Amino acid sequence: xxxxxxxxxxxxxxxxxxxxxxxxxxxxxxxxxxxxxxxxxxxxxxxxxxxxxxxxxxxxxxxxxxxxxxxxxxxxxxxxxxxxxxxxxxxxxxxxxxxxxxxxxxxxxxxxxxxxxxxxxxxxxxxxxxxxxxxxxxxxxxxxxxxxxxxxxxxxxxxxxxxxxxxxxxxxxxxxxxxxxxxxxxxxxxxxxxxxxxxxxxxxxxxxxxxxxxxxxxxxxxxxxxxxxxxxxxxxxxxxxxxxxxxxxxxxxxxxxxxxxxxxxxxxx
Length: 269
Hints:
Layout: E1 4-6, E2 10-13, E3 19-23, E4 26-28, H1 34-37, H2 44-52, H3 56-66, H4 75-78, E5 88-91, E6 103-106, E7 115-116, E8 129-135, H5 144-154, E9 155-166, H6 183-189, E10 194-202, H7 204-221, H8 225-239, H9 246-249, E11 261-267
Parallel strand pairs: 4-7, 5-6, 5-8, 6-7, 8-9
Antiparallel strand pairs: 1-2, 2-3, 3-4, 9-11, 10-11
């Protein structure tokens, strides 16, 4: 981090003399409230997600058991050749720890978060970062292009960027939900980078179940939002084994026309 002087309890910006506190090993470059994270606080699923994020192992189990069935290139695979001394950022990391040396950045101090910051204004110098990961974050921001611009600014020439985004997925506010991308749309979003690889991250069956479970929940809730949330969790649980079909389906021709999500791996030119 350029222009920052480190002490035991804070970082000091040598340019503006502003101090940034270090609390329990987490450095905060901004003040973000729980209200921002819980814009949909009446949403039962959002409340449960925030509760279970206190218990990272159990939350990760729920995420992989009942979320999309992941295929294709993962973030861990994308950076596996990078040495441990490389500077790697995970933007919008939540509680997920990909590798011990990866720096997790989020706007709330969840467990495993190292830096609390606005990822459209990263506290890193130009051309200073070796790799950046950004998984299922861009759909939650109004201006994803601002994040892409910031990624380009801080990456070194030749630095890696790995992004994953949803395509066919029902609305989910965490705390907001604004965007979806086709595969060509994701390639266009990342047009300022050199494309290395792009493909399906979660397949057609995950997409189908995302819509079907929501459809059933809406149908049977009779307009009552709390009941719709309960039905959604119920159907998500009982249909989750069907996601295993994606192990085969994602390989079929034209599966990307109806897939749940895509990944993009690129380099800064």
